[in-house]
Structure formats: C-alpha cells, structure tokens
Amino acid sequence: MSSSAQPIKTVTIIGSGLMGSGIAQVAAASGHKVTVVDQSQEIIDKASASIQKSLGRVVKKKFPDDSKAQQTYIADVMSHLSLQTDAVAAVKSADLVIEAIVENLDVKKILFSSLDKEAPSHTIFASNTSSIPIKDIASSTSRLDRFGGLHFFNPVPVMKLVEVIRTPETSDETFSALESFGKAVGKTTVQCKDTPGFIVNRLLVPYMMEAIRLVERGEATPRDVDTAMKLGAGYPMGPFELSDYVGLDTTKFIIDGWTEREPNNPLFSQSELLNKLVAEGKLGVKSGEGFYPYNKK
Ligand code: NAI
Questions:
Q1: May I ask the CATH architecture of the domain 202-287?
Q2: Domain-wise residue ranges, the chain
Q3: 125 sits in which H/E element
Q4: Distance of CA 217 from the midpoint of ligand 1 (Å)
Q5: How do residues 277-291 score in pLDDT, each as one tens digit?
Q6: Which of 255, 227, 220 lies closest to 241 in space, CA to CA?
Q7: Which of 127, 144, 204, 232 has its CA 20 to 30 A from that of 137?
Q8: 41: CA distance to ligand 1 center in Å?
Q9: Largest alpha-carbon pair distance within the chain?
C-alpha cells in the first residue's frame, strides 16, 4: 500500500437520494467540504431537509438534553455542505467525486464521461453502485487508475461498513485514498475486487433467493423460515423480512443483472415467485405488501 496518497478534503457527491444524502451527511460531519448535486432545485431542497432531519436524530443521541449543543452541531455540519444542480461546476475543485445516481450503466457513463473532461487530473472518481461492474462505468473516463468503488450501506449514517472496490487498473494510491476516506467518515472498510455483489450482496442475495426457492418448493412458510434464521442462526431479520425491507424490485433487479452476466450460475437463477410478486406491484414495505402485508402510511 502506497503512503503517497493525498488525504481527501473536498468531496462532490452526485445524486442526493437515499444514499447520496447519507454519504453527504457523514462526509460533512467528519469535516470534509462537501458539494451535493442533483437534477433540480426541488430535489436538492428535499435532500437538504432530509439531511437536517437525520442530523436531528444524531444530536438527540449525541447531546441529550442540550438543545444549544444540538443546534450548534447541526449548523456546523450544514456549514460544510453546499447543494447545487451543476455537476460540471461542482467537480472543478473536488479531490473525490462519489456517484450515487440511478442504477443504470448508460446514465452513469454519460455522467462520468462529462465529468472526466472537467475535473482536475488528481480528482478520484468513485461509484456507489451495488450491481454494475466498476470497470464498465470507469471505461467512460480516461482515468482508469483514479477510479474505484465506494459501496456504502443503507441507512448510511447508521451502517458501519464501506466496501472499497478496486479494478485491475485502480492504482495503489487511489485505493489507499479511498480506504482512508472510508475510515475518515467513521466507517470500517473492507477490500474487495470488482466482482458481482462484492462481499455483502454476493452472499446476501443468493441467500435471500434460496430462501424464496425453499418456499417455492413448498418446504416451509416465509414466517417459519424467518423464525428459524432469527432464532437458529442469530440473524436480526429473517430473509423474507429483509427482502421486504430492501424491496423485492431491488432484489429482482440485482438477480436479473447477474443472471444475464452468468446464466449458468445456479446461485444467480431466477425465481417465479419473486417475479410474480414484483409484476403484481408487491414490492415489500414501501408498497404496503411483499411477502408480508404492511400497514400503508
Ligand atoms: P435514489 O433514487 O434514492 O437517488 C438517486 C438520485 O440521483 C435521485 O435524487 C436522482 O434525481 C439523482 N440523479 C439521477 N440521475 C442524475 C444525474 N444524471 N445527475 C444528478 N443526479 C441524478 O437512489 P439510491 O437508492 O440513493 O441509489 C443510488 C445508487 O446507490 C445506485 O447506484 C444504487 O445501486 C446504489 N446503492 C443503493 C443502496 C440502497 O440501499 N438504496 C445501497 C448501496 C448502493
């Protein structure tokens, strides 16, 4: 590991959705100068409000019964953050650009190819993609050595892990800078090569799919599988509760991509039951029903 990597101070995050706003929050809270970019003023206003709300939860734990300290902390974190709609302008002074936009290769490539022309040569690019090969996204740029993956977990302020991904072209300096950034925002980092699902999803998605297949074969009910895995394996959630929480469409999207890439891998095979539920709009907690019914808010 090289020690010559410059520490990352200025970060631009493209995409202010669920993941982008969470990454922005932890980066700003750890003293980085953060710019967040999204497509419209309306979207970034929403993101700003959601970051402030999330910080409100943080300060209640951090400074219970001290509303002055709570307000000072929120104001300090927010002072490290700016939000805007011009991605090109936002990368001009960035040490690191983290992309957290829609999970679509073509859209990500168009974005990175335009940013590549505008960002300084030292700027490192990273994607937070869950399922697209980093090398495919990086191919839209001329900085393959300064490109890697930073895979955060939802909800970012709570989940303690970041998977740091390297392609064969990622330089040691880049990898070391990405790892240091992950630690600087308070996460534990693990290293992984650019393989489907990296570590967590590579194990988790086939596990959830096999749970669904087990139910499809009529061997047990979702409720009994969940009870078994919670009480027998010590997992905090069973695979069906987890699938409903993650979103059945998200699980299907990931498995579809893997089936296409490795059609003969039995771990990546399709499930009729999952496909049927998604086709019926039963997507889990967010749609009010998945494997289980939920009270719609
Ligand atoms: P999201 O849908 O909540 O947010 C995406 C945001 O990107 C939206 O606000 C959208 O307006 C914006 N956007 C789309 N195209 C853009 C463009 N060209 N320029 C600027 N902004 C643009 O999505 P989410 O869940 O935050 O996911 C983002 C990325 O993070 C995806 O690649 C996803 O695979 C990955 N990811 C998602 C996780 C999750 O649990 N949701 C976990 C880990 C990674």
A1: Orthogonal Bundle (1.10)
A2: 10-193, 202-287
A3: strand 124-127
A4: 35
A5: 999 999 999 999 999
A6: 227
A7: 204
A8: 16
A9: 59
Atom of ligand 1 nearest to the CA of 37: 20
What confidence tens digit (pLDDT) does each residue in 185-238 have? 999 999 999 999 999 999 999 999 999 999 999 999 999 999 999 999 999 999
Distance 247 CA to ligand 1 centre (A): 15
For residue 44, give both structure tokens.
């970034």
Q: pLDDT tens, 58-94? A: 999 999 999 999 999 999 999 999 999 999 999 999 9
CATH numeric code, 10-193:
3.40.50.720
Catalytic annotation present for 128:
no
Q: Is-catalytic flag, 130?
A: yes
Protein residue closest via CA to atom 9 of ligand 1: 17
Q: State whether residue 224 is helix, strand or coil.
A: helix
Per residue in 2-36, pLDDT (tens digit) is: 445 678 999 999 999 999 999 999 999 999 999 99
8 Å CB contact between 83 and 16 = yes
Whose CA is closest to 277, among 297, 260, 255?
A: 255
Of 99, 163, 241, 289, the active-site residue reads: 163
Ligand 1, pocket residues at CB < 6 Å: 14-20, 37-39, 43, 87, 100-103, 107, 111, 128-130, 151-154
